[in-house]
Amino acid sequence: MPAPAFAAALNEQVGHEFAAHQQYVAIAVHYDAETLPRLAAFFYAQALEERNHAMMMVQYLLDSGAEVVVPGTDAPRSTFADIVEPVQTALDQERRVTDQISALTALARETGDFQSEQFLGWFLKEQVEEVASMGDLLRVVQRAKDDPLRAEEHLAREHASGEVADPTAPAAAGGAV
After folding, report:
1. Total tally of structural domains belonging to the chain
2. Which of 30, 70, 74, 121 is deepest in the core (most CB within 10 A)?
3. Quick check: 43 and 90 in contact, CB under 8 A?
């Protein structure tokens, strides 16, 4: 069983992941309302990823015999001035999550909880990819600010193939993939 401090912090992180899910849904809805379907689809997919991250953490807590407490979240930001602001919001969020996962890893290490530290290794790797992906998308939308269809074309070209499930990802509660 994880140290009580780690279990409490991981439960808190579940809330952060659900908040990220909601923020990505809000961003996707914004792009949908602006008739930018590729940007919307990208963020709907990101929202599902964040939800699954929360469910992976829930499953870990269940598997390790720790209490699961699903915290509430604040309302996400839902209005944006242009096509750049939502992606900047997403990048800022990914950087915060990276800091949160790093702090969780440090806590696991401090408490000698090597199983939890190992569990978080996948999330650390995932955050490198998420920050890089959002940083790339930010540069694209900055260049396409005055012609959003260029960002749509970029996503159509660069994200045309479906995502393949990562076989190294932790199991998610409820069978989420």
Report:
1. 1
2. 30
3. yes
Range of the domain at 148: 4-161
Of all helices (H) and strands (E), which one includes residue 115? helix 114-143
Distance CA 30, CA 13 (A): 25
Whether residue 141 lies inside any domain: the answer is: yes
User: Does 171 fall in a domain?
Assistant: no
Question: Which residue pairs, CB below 8 angstroms and at least 24 apart, start in 167-173?
Answer: 168/122, 169/56, 169/122, 170/56, 170/59, 170/60, 170/119, 170/122, 171/56, 171/59, 172/52, 172/55, 172/56, 172/58, 172/59, 173/55, 173/56, 173/58, 173/59, 173/62
Q: Is residue 74 part of a domain?
A: yes
pLDDT tens profile 142-171: 999 999 999 999 999 988 666 667 778 888
Distance CA 9, CA 73 (A): 15
